[in-house]
Amino acid sequence: MTEYKLKTTIKKxxxxxxxxxxxxxxxxxxxxxxxxxxxxxxxxxxDVGIIGKNIGTVTDQSGKFSINLDNINDNDSIRFSMIGYxxxxxxxxxFKADSIKTVYLSPKSYYLTExxxxxxxxxxxxxxxxxxxxxxxxxFGENNLGSELGVKINSPGEVxxxxxxxxxxxxxxxxxxxxxxxxxxxxxxxWENILTKPIYISFTKDKIRKAITFNLxxxxxxxxxxxxxxLELYRDLGEGKLLFLTQFFxxxxxxxxxx
Length: 259
Known about the structure:
It contains two helices and 18 strands. It is mostly beta strands.
């Protein structure tokens, strides 16, 4: 009788464990390539990521990529995007089921609206906050492809960006290169890149003794309202450390995987 009760109790415990254990997530590596639709040539540095999730990577020089996908993301969407190209999105479950894993992108057409030119006197203004201390530092949360570090900037009106200033605190790399992204915020989760062509920013370790200025005048970047300016790690820099000087009370610093 005691043995029967013991077996019954064990069965009940096992049943309860099975009942309350959630689906076990497992991760699988998927590899593929992003090609130009017209020529079948690889497109370098395309952003590959799960929309709304902190999961992403970047294609290499030949358009190849690899990304880890969990089964818990099967109902999410994976997006392939690059400035200057129409982006493509797929349901993760459908993408995983496709044995070829080749994605084709086409160049994006930008339509220019009518422009009326009026002369008026201009003035230079500073967006963001000047750095007055060397004690507060910030850097990338992850040194992985597709990682972005950025700040939110509020423009008082329609403004043309002329320069970007970076204050580097620590750099153990001989040289670094990042991709600049400028996003308009549709809402908290929708970031719309307003650039029409990629902008790459590079500098060497010997340049960090003072603020590094990059000229953006030729890109004709017009902003208005709230934007987020980020640097994206689009190439593997290897082992090292890069920290930027920042300032108290300058707002939120954003870390994310680009999509």
